[in-house]
Automatic annotation (TrEMBL):
Binding locations of heme: C400
SUPFAM superfamilies in UniProt: Cytochrome P450
Similarity section: Belongs to the cytochrome P450 family.
GO molecular function: heme binding; iron ion binding; monooxygenase activity; oxidoreductase activity, acting on paired donors, with incorporation or reduction of molecular oxygen
Keyword Transcription annotated: no
Classification via Gene3D superfamilies: Cytochrome P450 (1.10.630.10)
Keywords: Heme, Iron, Metal-binding, Monooxygenase, Oxidoreductase, Signal
Stored CDD domains: CYP4
Name listed for the protein in its UniProt record: Cytochrome P450
Amino acid sequence: LRDYLRTIRLAFRLKGPPALPILGNVLTINDFKKLEEYGTNASQMYGSIFRCWISIVPFIWVYEPNHLKIILGSSKISRKNVFYSILHNFVGEGLITNNGYKWRKNRKHIQPYFHISILESYIDVFLENAHKFTSEFIKNGEGPVNITSFINRCVLNTLHESILGVPVDDESPYRKGEVMLTQRIARPWLLLQSIFNLTPFAEKEYHQKLSLHNYTRKVLEIRKKEYDKSSLRCLLDMFIEIAETNKDFSEEDMINEGVTFMLAGQDSVGAAIAFTLFFLAKHQEVQDKVYEEIDNLRTESMITVTQLNSMKYLEQVIKESLRLIPSVPILSRVLTEDVNLDGEILGRGTNVFISPFITHRLPHYFPDPLKFDPDRFSQENVERMHPYSFIPFSIGPRNCIGYKFALLEIKTILSVFLKQFRITLAEGHENYSLSYRVTLRAKGGIWLQLHSRTQTSSTAESRHAEQRKPWNL
Ligand code: HEM
């Protein structure tokens, strides 16, 4: 109670958007235009921190890189808060939602499997799915096309094979699924589990979780039967290897983490690819430079980590796109110690929102912040950048474990696709409007016009598929 009263006193002193009695600011969560406006102008409107109210609970928004260094730089200062416990209902208890010993133990076990030398083994899967994705348009014409659902399907297939080790089938519950978190925040009485349990949403969520977990359990059984230590094919195989030597990594851990990785790597990557394509279609001169970089690569049958790492300009473009539209625009934490942010004391127990979206638009770190300019990420500019000013994958001990995986995947898909097609924006779709459900997305999708770069529609996909071993389910 004392911690709560301290935060209330702080919240009354700080500036923030106008709030309704009892509801506070929760209605804004479905007002994407307002969210975008606050996100873009926060520092000019409110200074270096501001408050909002989720019903009667104050949340403090923190976005200055020096403040983020204090909060995200150490796992002792903050922990994941009640919103992540709500996500337990969806993803189960995995790296994203856990705190303390459970999180530390699993992160330590899994981290080595995200070393670049191991990620290399996924590149075949990335490449095959990149060719499948691209060949859909070779077969079906050049548009205009809403590219979003094609990207999402490609990303789902890629994850299914690299995390679970099996291709997507009709039974896969990962094809659908809906996070209830934002709906619950918009109706804060649903944040009380006992009330939420009385609603049909609770039952839907329960069945969703059950099917995700049951399906993953079934796949794990298959992987166990096929397990061959000398050729680990997917992340579940690696989990089996961890469990062999670590008694504290149980079957439940494998399932919870399997579900977590499947959900963490989908919409985040899908949004990053879709928005990067949008910006490339809008900025032809940038697209030309990317094409120049990938033109020399022979991506038909193989691609290596070295080649992917050599695509420096493409990486700058992806980063600039993630700066403007970070797939995960808001994180949340509760402080476990008092912190002093330039003279403002945030007490233990204070809930904070951390917003990559706001940080990435701070004009004192990114001049002319709304301008799409990949040169911000040239090597010399990056050397001068505050390390906590660009945080699409978060930063510190709880950063995204999958960020290298994501960058390799995104680069593979984009380079194969852009080698085949020049893209422009479809008529009438020159702008996007944002919507938000834990990740950002383009309302109505991203519409592109495709222009084939080669007249001979080489069936690179089939050539590549011939070289890969078939999946033996
Ligand atoms: C563009 C793509 C991606 C973006 C922008 C992204 C962003 C993030 C962010 C911001 C966090 C921190 C979340 C928080 O603190 O609440 C995070 C955590 C995480 N991400 Fe990603 N992610 C991406 C792709 C992936 C992929 C492909 C995977 C898995 C293959 C993945 C797995 C995870 C996991 C397991 C965590 C929790 C890590 C921990 O707390 O130890 N992510 N990601």
